[in-house]
Structures are given as structure tokens and as C-alpha cells.
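User: Can you help me understand a structure? I only have the sequence.
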Amino acid sequence: MKRDPAPSIQRRAPTSAKAEQRVRDILRVGREVFAELGYERTTTTEIAQRLAISEATIFTYFRGKRELCLRVIGDWYDETIATIEATLPPDSSTREQLEAFVRIHLSIFLVQGTGICALVLSEGRSRPGAGPDLGDTLHELQRRYTAPLMDLLARGQVRGEIRADLPLRLLRSLVLGPIEHMLWELLASPQRNIDIEASTRDLVALLWQAVQAPDQELQALRGLRHELQKALDRV
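Assistant: Let's start by predicting it. Here is the structure, written out as C-alpha cells:
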């Protein structure tokens, strides 16, 4: 799937290897601070202090905290989308693809970066058109982010594996809603241990009961009977 280009949100493109490394360092530490403190409590002063550079150096490449946060979140979206596209098994059943999608997200949300995920989700809910918030700019990033899931679900409906009477938007919420809820639970109780594989199996089993086409179980049994009969014929 071809991705739309991300919006240009960087003030000045680096023109040397040293400048490129400086931008990478600012983005790396910026992600750490935004994930740790959230958008409102983060300051460019804090980021500069952790890097042992002047705040003016940050403003050389980014107009301010909002622009830097947009770049941090945009990079997170790009990384997540690339991981999804590289990991989803292309020639497998819709359920297998759904299981891979859920496993990827549980790993990203609950293991690799709970802080940055919480930042993305909270800022993504900012009221569009409310001035300097991030909601308007994040809307397009969110659309790109959910596109692989929407494509997966749409193909499942075309194959007859997923109920055709349910709108894709509702199906998307059914999948992503529980994952987000698990993230907030983990943030409230960070000492909890999450078994990603067990959580994936349990969640997909629950989801599949709700979204599978009514005749899927019968078709699966018929397929199994057919395979068994072929095996018996070869004996």
C-alpha cells in the first residue's frame, strides 16, 4: 500500500552530517521527554538541558515545542505503519492477519513505548479547530495509521470471512478500542506484567466471535472434512 507523504513540519533541513545527527538527537530526547512528561509539561528548555545544548539550537531546526512534538509523533506513526506493513502475513487468512495486527499493537503499546502511545492518543483527541492544539494536524496521520487495519477488514468482507453488515468504522473501533483500554490500565498499574501472546489470543478469540461471517464456522468444518477425506483417500 502506498503511503501518503507526511506533511513537512521541520523548520530547517539539516545540511551536514553533524546537523543531521543533531536533529536525530533532538528528536530522540524529545520523544523521551514528551513520553515522560506529556505535551503540556514538556519544555524545550528541558530537552536542551538533557542534551547539554542551548535552547536556541533546538529553535534552529524547529519553531518551537508544538512543531517538535508533531515531528516526534509523525516519526512514531511512520515507524508503526512500517512495522505493520512489514509484519502482516500477506497470503494468510483474515483471522491470521488480524491476530498479527493485534500482536504488533499490543507489543508497541504495552511494551515498547507506553508513554509515547499515551501522548499520541491523548493529543489525537484534541478538539479539531481549537487553535494551537495538535488535533488538526494529527487527523491525517491517524487516517494513515488506521489504513492497514481498514484494508485488512475490507478484504475480509470481500472474502466473506467478516460480516458485511457491519460498517468498517465500527469494526475498526472494535479492534483498537480494547487495545487502547489495556494501555490506560497499564499506565494506571505499571507494575502489571502483560503476557502479549496470551492477550493476543484472548482478544482475537473474542473479536472473531463478534466479526466473523455467520457461516464461517460451517465453512471451516466443511474445509476440515474435505481435508480429512483427502487424507483418508490417500491411505
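Now, to help you interpret it: Confidence is low (pLDDT under 50) at residues 1-9, 127-131. The longest helix spans residues 17-41. Let me know which part you'd like to focus on.
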